[in-house]
Amino acid sequence: MDHIKPHRGDPDLFWDEKNWQTLCKSCHDHKTMTEDREIRYQY
């Protein structure tokens, strides 16, 4: 299960079913990597 908006440890967002979507593993990994990269390189 993928979280549409990253929960970043927020339990309410983690368990919010409206924030869930199904993705194949490849798409999920790509999305997660992209989101992690954006956080690291924000200025």
TrEMBL record:
Source domain of life is Bacteria
Q: Which CDD domains match?
A: HNHc
* UniProt name for this protein: Phage holin
Annotated ranges, domain HNH: 1-32
Recorded GO terms, molecular function? endonuclease activity; nucleic acid binding; zinc ion binding
- Per the record, the coiled-coil ranges are none
